[in-house]
Specification:
Layout (H helix, E strand, L loop, with lengths): L1 H59 L11 E6 L15 E6 L5 E7 L18 H6 L3 E4 L4 H9 L4 E3 L9 E2 L9 E2 L2 H10 L14 E2 L9 E2 L2 E5 L5 E7 L4 E6 L2 E2 L10 E2 L1 E11 L9 E4 L3 E8 L2 E8 L8 E4 L7 E2 L3 E7 L5 E3 L1
Parallel strand pairs: 1-4, 2-21, 4-5, 8-20, 15-21
Antiparallel strand pairs: 1-3, 2-3, 6-7, 9-18, 10-11, 10-22, 11-12, 12-13, 12-14, 15-16, 15-17, 17-18, 18-19
Protein backbone atom coordinates (compact mmCIF):
# COMPACT_ATOMS: atom_id res chain seq x y z
CA UNK A 1 0.00 0.00 0.00
CA UNK A 2 2.78 2.39 0.91
CA UNK A 3 4.44 1.71 -2.41
CA UNK A 4 1.20 2.40 -4.25
CA UNK A 5 0.74 5.66 -2.33
CA UNK A 6 4.23 6.82 -3.23
CA UNK A 7 3.58 5.97 -6.86
CA UNK A 8 0.36 8.01 -6.85
CA UNK A 9 2.16 10.96 -5.25
CA UNK A 10 4.90 10.77 -7.92
CA UNK A 11 2.28 10.77 -10.66
CA UNK A 12 0.53 13.78 -9.14
CA UNK A 13 3.84 15.67 -8.85
CA UNK A 14 4.62 14.89 -12.50
CA UNK A 15 1.19 16.13 -13.58
CA UNK A 16 1.62 19.36 -11.56
CA UNK A 17 5.04 20.00 -13.09
CA UNK A 18 3.66 19.25 -16.57
CA UNK A 19 0.75 21.66 -16.06
CA UNK A 20 3.16 24.36 -14.83
CA UNK A 21 5.38 23.85 -17.90
CA UNK A 22 2.34 24.04 -20.20
CA UNK A 23 1.28 27.34 -18.59
CA UNK A 24 4.81 28.74 -18.93
CA UNK A 25 4.99 27.67 -22.57
CA UNK A 26 1.55 29.16 -23.26
CA UNK A 27 2.59 32.40 -21.61
CA UNK A 28 5.76 32.62 -23.65
CA UNK A 29 3.81 31.88 -26.84
CA UNK A 30 1.27 34.63 -26.06
CA UNK A 31 4.09 37.11 -25.30
CA UNK A 32 5.76 36.25 -28.61
CA UNK A 33 2.54 36.83 -30.54
CA UNK A 34 2.03 40.15 -28.73
CA UNK A 35 5.60 41.24 -29.49
CA UNK A 36 5.24 40.27 -33.14
CA UNK A 37 2.01 42.24 -33.40
CA UNK A 38 3.67 45.25 -31.77
CA UNK A 39 6.63 45.01 -34.14
CA UNK A 40 4.31 44.68 -37.11
CA UNK A 41 2.41 47.74 -35.91
CA UNK A 42 5.65 49.69 -35.57
CA UNK A 43 6.68 48.69 -39.12
CA UNK A 44 3.26 49.66 -40.48
CA UNK A 45 3.39 53.00 -38.66
CA UNK A 46 6.94 53.61 -39.87
CA UNK A 47 5.92 52.79 -43.46
CA UNK A 48 2.87 55.02 -43.21
CA UNK A 49 5.08 57.82 -41.86
CA UNK A 50 7.53 57.38 -44.75
CA UNK A 51 4.68 57.30 -47.28
CA UNK A 52 3.13 60.42 -45.75
CA UNK A 53 6.51 62.19 -45.74
CA UNK A 54 6.98 61.16 -49.39
CA UNK A 55 3.53 62.45 -50.28
CA UNK A 56 4.20 65.68 -48.42
CA UNK A 57 7.50 66.12 -50.28
CA UNK A 58 5.83 65.54 -53.66
CA UNK A 59 3.00 67.94 -52.87
CA UNK A 60 5.43 70.65 -51.77
CA UNK A 61 7.64 70.47 -54.87
CA UNK A 62 7.07 73.48 -57.17
CA UNK A 63 5.51 72.60 -60.52
CA UNK A 64 7.48 75.10 -62.60
CA UNK A 65 10.55 73.59 -64.30
CA UNK A 66 10.50 70.73 -61.78
CA UNK A 67 11.38 67.73 -63.96
CA UNK A 68 14.70 66.55 -65.40
CA UNK A 69 13.58 67.15 -69.00
CA UNK A 70 15.87 69.62 -70.70
CA UNK A 71 14.10 72.92 -71.45
CA UNK A 72 13.63 74.34 -74.94
CA UNK A 73 14.33 78.04 -75.59
CA UNK A 74 12.48 79.43 -78.60
CA UNK A 75 12.98 82.86 -80.22
CA UNK A 76 9.59 84.50 -80.82
CA UNK A 77 8.80 87.44 -83.10
CA UNK A 78 7.22 90.35 -81.19
CA UNK A 79 6.62 92.73 -84.09
CA UNK A 80 3.06 94.06 -84.27
CA UNK A 81 2.50 92.03 -87.47
CA UNK A 82 3.55 88.86 -85.66
CA UNK A 83 0.95 89.19 -82.92
CA UNK A 84 -0.75 87.23 -81.52
CA UNK A 85 1.79 84.48 -80.92
CA UNK A 86 1.57 80.77 -80.10
CA UNK A 87 3.40 79.28 -77.12
CA UNK A 88 3.61 82.37 -74.90
CA UNK A 89 0.58 81.20 -72.94
CA UNK A 90 2.22 77.86 -72.09
CA UNK A 91 5.79 79.06 -71.43
CA UNK A 92 7.30 78.66 -67.96
CA UNK A 93 9.56 81.71 -68.38
CA UNK A 94 9.44 84.43 -71.04
CA UNK A 95 12.41 86.75 -71.61
CA UNK A 96 11.79 90.05 -73.41
CA UNK A 97 14.77 92.09 -74.64
CA UNK A 98 15.14 94.98 -77.05
CA UNK A 99 16.43 94.44 -80.61
CA UNK A 100 16.98 96.77 -83.57
CA UNK A 101 14.45 99.44 -84.51
CA UNK A 102 13.11 99.79 -80.97
CA UNK A 103 11.39 96.41 -81.29
CA UNK A 104 11.66 93.56 -78.80
CA UNK A 105 11.84 89.81 -79.17
CA UNK A 106 10.66 87.15 -76.78
CA UNK A 107 12.40 83.95 -75.82
CA UNK A 108 10.18 81.22 -74.40
CA UNK A 109 11.49 78.64 -71.93
CA UNK A 110 9.35 75.52 -72.32
CA UNK A 111 9.67 72.26 -70.40
CA UNK A 112 7.54 69.13 -70.77
CA UNK A 113 5.15 70.85 -73.17
CA UNK A 114 3.33 69.29 -76.10
CA UNK A 115 2.47 72.15 -78.47
CA UNK A 116 1.35 71.72 -82.06
CA UNK A 117 2.25 75.29 -82.97
CA UNK A 118 4.92 77.66 -81.63
CA UNK A 119 5.71 80.97 -83.26
CA UNK A 120 6.17 83.08 -85.22
CA UNK A 121 9.83 82.14 -84.82
CA UNK A 122 12.53 84.70 -85.63
CA UNK A 123 16.28 84.90 -85.84
CA UNK A 124 18.75 84.78 -82.99
CA UNK A 125 20.49 87.71 -81.32
CA UNK A 126 23.71 86.95 -79.45
CA UNK A 127 22.67 88.21 -76.00
CA UNK A 128 19.63 85.91 -75.91
CA UNK A 129 22.12 83.02 -75.85
CA UNK A 130 23.12 84.05 -72.32
CA UNK A 131 19.65 83.18 -71.06
CA UNK A 132 19.33 79.97 -73.08
CA UNK A 133 22.65 78.87 -71.59
CA UNK A 134 21.71 79.73 -68.01
CA UNK A 135 18.59 77.56 -68.40
CA UNK A 136 20.59 74.70 -69.99
CA UNK A 137 18.14 74.85 -72.90
CA UNK A 138 18.14 73.63 -76.50
CA UNK A 139 18.04 76.89 -78.46
CA UNK A 140 15.56 77.20 -81.34
CA UNK A 141 15.61 80.06 -83.87
CA UNK A 142 14.93 80.88 -87.54
CA UNK A 143 18.10 82.48 -88.83
CA UNK A 144 20.73 84.42 -86.91
CA UNK A 145 22.73 87.62 -86.81
CA UNK A 146 26.47 87.31 -87.60
CA UNK A 147 27.24 87.83 -83.90
CA UNK A 148 24.79 85.12 -82.82
CA UNK A 149 26.10 82.68 -85.43
CA UNK A 150 29.66 83.24 -84.19
CA UNK A 151 28.72 82.85 -80.51
CA UNK A 152 26.62 79.72 -81.09
CA UNK A 153 29.75 78.11 -82.51
CA UNK A 154 32.07 79.63 -79.88
CA UNK A 155 30.00 78.44 -76.92
CA UNK A 156 28.95 75.12 -78.52
CA UNK A 157 25.27 75.94 -78.06
CA UNK A 158 22.93 73.05 -78.86
CA UNK A 159 20.78 74.89 -81.39
CA UNK A 160 18.19 74.26 -84.08
CA UNK A 161 18.07 76.74 -86.97
CA UNK A 162 14.71 76.39 -88.73
CA UNK A 163 16.06 77.85 -91.97
CA UNK A 164 18.08 74.67 -92.51
CA UNK A 165 15.26 72.28 -91.62
CA UNK A 166 12.57 70.78 -93.86
CA UNK A 167 9.28 72.53 -94.56
CA UNK A 168 7.51 69.82 -92.58
CA UNK A 169 9.58 70.57 -89.46
CA UNK A 170 9.31 74.37 -89.76
CA UNK A 171 6.61 75.80 -91.99
CA UNK A 172 5.05 79.13 -92.93
CA UNK A 173 1.36 79.73 -92.27
CA UNK A 174 -0.97 81.65 -94.56
CA UNK A 175 -2.73 83.90 -92.02
CA UNK A 176 0.42 85.99 -91.50
CA UNK A 177 3.00 87.13 -94.03
CA UNK A 178 6.79 86.59 -94.09
CA UNK A 179 8.96 87.07 -92.14
CA UNK A 180 6.33 86.94 -89.38
CA UNK A 181 4.84 83.51 -90.10
CA UNK A 182 7.37 80.70 -89.48
CA UNK A 183 6.20 78.12 -86.94
CA UNK A 184 7.08 74.68 -85.57
CA UNK A 185 5.97 72.22 -82.88
CA UNK A 186 7.57 70.75 -79.78
CA UNK A 187 7.35 67.29 -81.38
CA UNK A 188 9.42 68.48 -84.35
CA UNK A 189 11.95 70.20 -82.09
CA UNK A 190 12.48 67.05 -80.02
CA UNK A 191 12.74 64.93 -83.15
CA UNK A 192 15.50 67.17 -84.52
CA UNK A 193 17.23 67.20 -81.12
CA UNK A 194 17.26 63.39 -81.17
CA UNK A 195 18.68 63.38 -84.70
CA UNK A 196 21.42 65.80 -83.65
CA UNK A 197 22.09 63.66 -80.54
CA UNK A 198 21.49 66.60 -78.22
CA UNK A 199 21.10 65.79 -74.56
CA UNK A 200 17.40 65.86 -73.60
CA UNK A 201 17.71 65.71 -69.80
CA UNK A 202 19.24 68.14 -67.31
CA UNK A 203 20.55 67.97 -63.77
CA UNK A 204 20.81 71.74 -63.44
CA UNK A 205 18.85 73.62 -60.78
CA UNK A 206 16.28 76.16 -61.94
CA UNK A 207 17.45 79.75 -62.36
CA UNK A 208 14.61 81.03 -60.17
CA UNK A 209 14.16 79.92 -56.57
CA UNK A 210 10.57 78.70 -56.85
CA UNK A 211 8.67 77.96 -53.65
CA UNK A 212 5.23 76.50 -52.93
CA UNK A 213 4.30 78.71 -49.98
CA UNK A 214 2.77 81.94 -51.29
CA UNK A 215 5.18 84.90 -51.56
CA UNK A 216 3.34 88.13 -50.72
CA UNK A 217 6.13 90.77 -50.43
CA UNK A 218 4.65 92.23 -47.26
CA UNK A 219 7.21 95.07 -47.19
CA UNK A 220 6.76 95.90 -50.87
CA UNK A 221 5.05 98.86 -52.49
CA UNK A 222 1.70 98.50 -54.24
CA UNK A 223 2.04 97.57 -57.93
CA UNK A 224 -1.39 96.95 -59.43
CA UNK A 225 -0.31 98.52 -62.72
CA UNK A 226 3.23 98.05 -64.07
CA UNK A 227 4.37 100.02 -67.13
CA UNK A 228 7.68 99.33 -68.92
CA UNK A 229 8.49 101.56 -71.92
CA UNK A 230 11.09 99.82 -74.11
CA UNK A 231 11.00 102.42 -76.87
CA UNK A 232 8.63 104.65 -78.82
CA UNK A 233 7.59 101.46 -80.65
CA UNK A 234 6.82 99.22 -77.73
CA UNK A 235 5.50 99.73 -74.21
CA UNK A 236 4.66 96.72 -72.06
CA UNK A 237 1.99 97.00 -69.40
CA UNK A 238 0.63 94.65 -66.74
CA UNK A 239 -2.66 94.96 -64.86
CA UNK A 240 -3.16 92.98 -61.62
CA UNK A 241 -6.20 90.73 -61.34
CA UNK A 242 -6.73 90.48 -57.58
CA UNK A 243 -9.25 87.64 -57.83
CA UNK A 244 -6.93 85.37 -59.83
CA UNK A 245 -3.75 86.73 -58.23
CA UNK A 246 -2.01 87.17 -61.58
CA UNK A 247 -1.11 89.93 -64.02
CA UNK A 248 -2.76 90.48 -67.40
CA UNK A 249 -0.21 91.41 -70.05
CA UNK A 250 -0.59 94.24 -72.59
CA UNK A 251 1.72 95.12 -75.49
CA UNK A 252 1.37 98.30 -77.54
CA UNK A 253 -1.88 99.06 -75.74
CA UNK A 254 -3.47 95.74 -76.71
CA UNK A 255 -4.27 92.86 -74.38
CA UNK A 256 -1.97 89.99 -75.35
CA UNK A 257 -3.77 86.76 -76.30
CA UNK A 258 -2.95 83.33 -77.68
CA UNK A 259 -2.83 82.97 -81.46
CA UNK A 260 -5.39 80.16 -81.81
CA UNK A 261 -7.42 80.12 -78.59
CA UNK A 262 -7.47 83.89 -77.96
CA UNK A 263 -6.98 83.17 -74.28
CA UNK A 264 -5.49 86.09 -72.35
CA UNK A 265 -1.77 85.90 -71.58
CA UNK A 266 -1.20 86.25 -67.84
CA UNK A 267 1.72 85.80 -65.47
CA UNK A 268 2.23 85.15 -61.77
CA UNK A 269 5.62 86.89 -61.55
CA UNK A 270 7.38 89.79 -63.26
CA UNK A 271 11.11 90.40 -62.93
CA UNK A 272 12.55 93.61 -64.38
CA UNK A 273 16.26 94.09 -65.09
CA UNK A 274 17.67 97.42 -66.28
CA UNK A 275 20.61 96.92 -68.66
CA UNK A 276 22.44 99.32 -70.96
CA UNK A 277 22.09 98.59 -74.69
CA UNK A 278 23.62 100.29 -77.70
CA UNK A 279 23.89 99.94 -81.48
CA UNK A 280 26.66 97.70 -82.79
CA UNK A 281 29.26 99.28 -85.06
CA UNK A 282 29.34 96.24 -87.35
CA UNK A 283 29.09 98.01 -90.70
CA UNK A 284 25.75 96.41 -91.51
CA UNK A 285 23.66 99.55 -91.06
CA UNK A 286 20.87 97.42 -89.60
CA UNK A 287 20.98 98.91 -86.13
CA UNK A 288 21.55 95.62 -84.33
CA UNK A 289 21.98 95.98 -80.57
CA UNK A 290 24.29 94.62 -77.91
CA UNK A 291 23.69 94.39 -74.18
CA UNK A 292 25.79 95.04 -71.07
CA UNK A 293 24.25 92.33 -68.92
CA UNK A 294 27.07 90.24 -67.42
CA UNK A 295 27.33 92.20 -64.20
CA UNK A 296 25.11 93.23 -61.28
CA UNK A 297 22.01 95.03 -62.51
CA UNK A 298 19.29 96.92 -60.66
CA UNK A 299 15.81 95.50 -60.91
CA UNK A 300 12.43 94.72 -59.41
CA UNK A 301 10.42 91.67 -58.44
CA UNK A 302 6.64 91.99 -58.76
CA UNK A 303 4.03 89.48 -57.60
CA UNK A 304 0.57 89.50 -55.98
CA UNK A 305 0.16 93.25 -56.42
CA UNK A 306 3.44 94.25 -54.71
CA UNK A 307 6.94 95.21 -55.86
CA UNK A 308 10.36 95.19 -54.21
CA UNK A 309 13.75 96.38 -55.45
CA UNK A 310 16.26 93.64 -56.21
CA UNK A 311 19.71 93.06 -57.67
CA UNK A 312 20.30 90.74 -60.64
CA UNK A 313 23.84 89.37 -60.73
CA UNK A 314 25.19 87.42 -63.72
CA UNK A 315 28.90 86.62 -63.51
CA UNK A 316 29.36 84.95 -66.91
CA UNK A 317 27.40 84.43 -70.10
CA UNK A 318 26.48 80.87 -69.17
CA UNK A 319 26.25 81.53 -65.42
CA UNK A 320 22.82 81.65 -63.82
CA UNK A 321 21.51 85.06 -62.80
CA UNK A 322 21.09 85.32 -59.02
CA UNK A 323 18.23 87.54 -57.87
CA UNK A 324 18.55 89.05 -54.37
CA UNK A 325 16.67 91.55 -52.25
CA UNK A 326 18.49 94.66 -51.02
CA UNK A 327 19.49 92.84 -47.82
CA UNK A 328 21.42 90.30 -49.89
CA UNK A 329 19.00 87.37 -49.58
CA UNK A 330 18.09 85.34 -52.67
CA UNK A 331 14.44 86.01 -53.39
CA UNK A 332 11.77 83.32 -53.29
CA UNK A 333 9.60 83.26 -56.41
CA UNK A 334 5.97 82.17 -56.57
CA UNK A 335 5.35 78.93 -58.43
CA UNK A 336 4.01 79.88 -61.87
CA UNK A 337 4.82 81.71 -65.09
CA UNK A 338 7.45 84.46 -64.95
CA UNK A 339 8.10 87.25 -67.44
CA UNK A 340 11.68 88.55 -67.25
CA UNK A 341 11.75 92.04 -68.73
CA UNK A 342 15.32 93.08 -69.56
CA UNK A 343 14.73 96.69 -70.51
CA UNK A 344 16.86 99.75 -71.37
CA UNK A 345 18.62 101.24 -68.36
CA UNK A 346 16.86 104.60 -68.81
CA UNK A 347 13.38 103.10 -69.17
CA UNK A 348 10.82 105.14 -67.21
CA UNK A 349 9.22 102.25 -65.33
CA UNK A 350 6.17 103.08 -63.24
CA UNK A 351 4.18 101.25 -60.55
CA UNK A 352 0.66 102.40 -59.71
CA UNK A 353 -2.00 101.44 -57.19
Amino acid sequence: MKEKSLKNEGTKAFVVVLVILIFIAAGLFIMKIANNKQNDLLVVNANETNINEEKEEIVKKPKTLASDSRPIAVMIDNHIDAMPQAGVLEADIVYEIIVEGGETRLMLILQDKDLEKIGPIRSSRHYFLDYALENDAIYVHYGWSPQAKSDISKYSVDNINGIYESSTSFWRVSDKYAPHNAVTSTKNILSIAEREEYRTTTDQDTVLNYVVDEVNLEDGETANTVTIPYSYANTVKYEYDEDKKEYIRYSRGEKQVDWDTEKTVTTKNIIIEKAENWTLDDGSGKGRQTLDNVKELEGYYITNGKVIEITCNKTSRSGQTVYKDLEGNEINVNDGKTFIQICPIDSKITFEE
